[in-house]
Amino acid sequence: CTVELCGVVASFRPTHSFTSRDGKELTKREITVADASGMSMVVTLWGDRAKQEDKVFENHPVVSIKGVLVKEWNSGRSGSLLEAGSLSFQPTTPAAQQVQQWWSEGGSKQRLTAL
Question: Is residue 64 within 8 Å of 57, Cβ to Cβ?
Fold first, then answer.
């Protein structure tokens, strides 16, 4: 299914470039997004979104991600941001404000549970 997520970037990995089976050069980056439920999910960003400087992912920004394809794999779930999707940093929606408040008031110390 395809979903919209709003959460804090709890962690991120460096970019990783590789060649696909059909010879295309691909770049990806995995970020872990968490929300006030204490749940988290790894979301893979591709291409130019993945190539953004590390500093945009540092200091646990709140993000709104639309168009995330969720798949089950190895008895867990992970997401992949589709090309037609969007990634927004520091959105001003009520949900984003709630997540930011949760993170700053102790969510950052909470043990997160992967979906």
Answer: no
Q: What is the CA radius of gyration of the chain?
A: 14
User: Which amino acid would we find at residue 46?
Assistant: W
> Is residue 75's pLDDT more than 90?
no
What's the whole-model pTM score? Answer: 0.92
For residues 63 and 79, what is the distance between their CA atoms, to the nearest angstrom? Answer: 14
- 36: CB partners within 8 A, 6+ apart: 98, 99, 102, 107
Q: b/e for 82-100, b at 16 or more Cβ within 10 A?
A: eeebebeeebeeebbeebb
User: What does the CA dihedral 28, 64, 77, 115 come to, rounded to 10 degrees?
Assistant: 130
DSSP 29-84: EEEEEE-TTSEEEEEEEEHHHHTS-GGGTTT--EEEEEEEEEEEETTEEEEEEEEE
